[in-house]
């Protein structure tokens, strides 16, 4: 036990001390901070005259009344938009504020106002014929796409109103102009009244959490896994292995290495987690999140906790295999090729997850969540976004634990043999023969 | 009860026998020479002694007991292809290796200081291995093997690649360890080192021990076939004497005469005395090198 501690401490210290580790960690943390602040920065720089409201004027020609209606409807829609912070309306931009300059003026006058920066733009209504609805143009220097969308729907309602000519009441008009949305629901959800009490914890916050955890799982696993393998190979190629294997049992050595690198990975993740959590609880950042209708309170902590657990289990499963591969390679140059099969496995786990993230209850995800190599990502998706019963989580975890034991056992055997073999990478046959010869 | 005892060990690898029926015993305070050409089974033997692989037949006993993991702190190993972590501070890695051998940190530090001073290498303490010359790297490897004062020390080609000054320094240390009671298994193909250091030896040829025992007795059992003669003046016609096979006169005036039987030596001496004064006359024991070549075959390096 003492020796295991020594191996862990030595591995951890030497890895964390390296310049490359410090620089990558710092660099990624800085990138993360930048990425987290991009929405805030965009909001800062795209603000209009500081107030955030678009100043619009109206040039009507002879359509005073229509112009009035459009602006009224638009203002109303705007109010609704800001109030309705429901999770299902997935608008990713901040609601547009329009500040109407009430009295209509002539085009020339408005153009001059734009030039003087007193106005951001104006709405131009031009006749298209006697009874026809006028064409509406938004004249503006800025990119005002969101305002355009808002005004378009407002104009649509006004047009409906003018065409219907008072034969429909307000509610019918509303009904006509509101789009039909089809909500998807599976039968078992319907059975429980369509509510979210069936283990389904889908929120947009959880979606983002699962997505981030999956990417972290992939990046961290590939990185730490390769670290484990290259540490072992370099010990072999520098021949310090010869001394190590006579001082410590291979099992202690291998798991010391794996746990040491695990702590390195956790340290790195910890740095990122601190960055993210600090942002989540900073007051200004909560405003930013609120802009996107994201609320920390909507996060399910069980998703984070279980995600972390699956990450640890996944790490131990993969890293024992990485250790085995590292032990049979004698030179660092040959390592890349040797670990490629493990890289493919991690990639598969990642892509099965990414491609199924919008369809978390598909058959492939259900099956994959019981396959130990894919479970860390797929079970996470089912927990975070789909439906999964507690016993399913348990079964998946047990399968994962058992395969860690099996892979660990096989890996130690390979490790024990591999570290004694030098020269070219042995084939399976040679390895088996060597195992037999060494009586392992 | 000797620290190390090998009883008829056999090891087979995929059809071929790497070590075939080797028995030997290393006493405390003894350096035991293990000789053999490359591929004769030395490394396999050492790996078995270190408990890395197990013999197919026979047994290895340590102080009378079979291998157990508690032996690790008692054994030291200097592998033939030695190396340490190239990028880790020397004191860090040597202390780490000492820890793995079961040493407490404070003891390890003290021992490290002692050895660095012993090798005149205090200034390397905070350097990295890759910054050191090859000879100094080897010294650090040696320290790694002995820092925990092992009871059984296994040295594989300990002096290869070192300059004469460092060879002397290491030899002194090895002798010092021997006099402290360490049992040392010493493999090499440099015969002069074996002659100088070892009491007993085993010569391996194609996995089999072909020559074994006390070095002096081995030497005695081989006929003395060389005569060294130094005379101020040349001695003509030596090669005509009975029993003389060949005569070489070196530039320094020494004759080296190969004889077929020891009686010929006396005839050479008489002939030389008849010619004038004799500065030096010696019937030489065969060197281990000669025995080795005779036994193992001249095809070897």
UniProtKB/TrEMBL annotation, chain A:
PANTHER family reported in the protein's UniProt record: MEMBRANE COMPONENT OF ABC TRANSPORTER YHHJ-RELATED (PTHR30294), MULTIDRUG ABC TRANSPORTER PERMEASE YBHS-RELATED (PTHR30294:SF29)
Locations listed in the record: Cell membrane
Domain named ABC-2 type transporter transmembrane: residues: 19-412
Chain positions covered by the region annotation Disordered: 179-199
Lineage: Bacteria, Bacillati, Bacillota, Bacilli, Bacillales
Major localization class: membrane
UniProt membrane topology term: Multi-pass membrane protein
Originating species: Paenibacillus hunanensis
Record keyword Metal-binding present: no
Entry's transmembrane regions: 21-42, 208-229, 258-281, 301-323, 335-357, 363-381, 388-411
Record keyword Cytoplasm present: no
Pfam family, any one: ABC2_membrane_3
Name of the molecule in the record: ABC-2 type transport system permease protein
Keywords linked to the UniProt accession: Cell membrane, Membrane, Transmembrane, Transmembrane helix
Comp. bias intervals (Polar residues): 179-190
From TrEMBL, chain B:
Keyword Nucleotide-binding listed: yes
Alphabetical list of Pfam families matching this protein: ABC_tran (PF00005), DrrA1-3_C (PF13732)
Domain of life of the native organism: Bacteria
Chaperone in keyword set: no
Residue ranges annotated for the ABC transporter domain, each copy included: 4-231
Keyword terms, alphabetized: ATP-binding, Nucleotide-binding, Transport
Single GO term (MF): ATP binding
SUPFAM superfamilies: P-loop containing nucleoside triphosphate hydrolases
InterPro entries: AAA+_ATPase, ABC_transporter-like_ATP-bd, ABC_transporter-like_CS, ABC_transporter_ATP-binding, DrrA1/2-like_C, P-loop_NTPase
UniProt similarity note: Belongs to the ABC transporter superfamily.
Name assigned to this protein: ABC-2 type transport system ATP-binding protein
